[in-house]
């Protein structure tokens, strides 16, 4: 069973949200609900204009952030259907050597789709 689906199953059965000390001081994992556009990677934010405002939506419901030795290691963005993507820190990438590049690939595709930034006419 994929980890996110297992988490949902456990929560539905009344079990608490898991915590993990990962056997060492400074190691932790926390959960935070997504909130676009402030807490959601830009490549996963969509927006729609209403009569009075712009409504933002994140493609993911939340994120589980893992810290090792007090430093960010990875953040996994997850959806209710079990889909997930992981953002690895530079430290994690150096330690792992190989990782799933989907987060970076999605960001690169999003960045390439953005309109060019006009130069500032007042800049020297």
Describe the 3D structure.
This protein is an alpha+beta fold. The chain has a domain at 3-33 and 62-106. Helix content is 23%, strand content 29%. It has a four-stranded antiparallel sheet. A hairpin with a 5-residue loop joins strand 5 (71-78) and strand 6 (84-88). The longest helix is centred in the last third of the chain and has 12 residues, at 102-113. The model has no long low-confidence stretch (mean pLDDT 87).
Tally of DSSP helical segments: 3
Q: Major sheet: order of its strands?
A: 1-4-5-6
> Strand portion, in percent?
25-35%
Give a count of the beta strands, DSSP E runs of length 2 or more: 6
State the helicity in percent bands.
10-25%
Rg, alpha carbons: 18 Å
Low-confidence stretches: none
The H/E string reads HEEEEEEHH
Silhouette: globular
- Terminal Cα separation, in Å? 58 Å
* Oligomer description: single chain
- Integer average pLDDT: 87
- Helix/strand-derived class? alpha+beta
**Could you give a short account of the major beta sheet?**
4 strands, antiparallel
């Amino acid at each position: 069973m994929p980890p996110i689906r297992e988490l949902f199953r456990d929560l539905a059965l009344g079990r608490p949200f898991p915590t993990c000390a990962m056997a060492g001081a400074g190691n932790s994992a926390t959960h935070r609900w997504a909130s676009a556009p402030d807490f959601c990677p830009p490549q996963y934010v969509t927006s729609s204009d209403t009569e009075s405002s712009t409504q933002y939506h994140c493609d993911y419901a939340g994120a589980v952030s893992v810290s090792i030795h007090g430093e960010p290691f990875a953040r996994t963005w997850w959806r209710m259907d079990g889909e997930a993507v992981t953002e690895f820190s530079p430290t994690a990438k150096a330690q792992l050597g190989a990782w799933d590049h989907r987060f970076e690939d999605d960001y690169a595709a999003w960045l390439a789709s953005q309109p060019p930034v006009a130069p500032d006419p007042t800049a020297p």
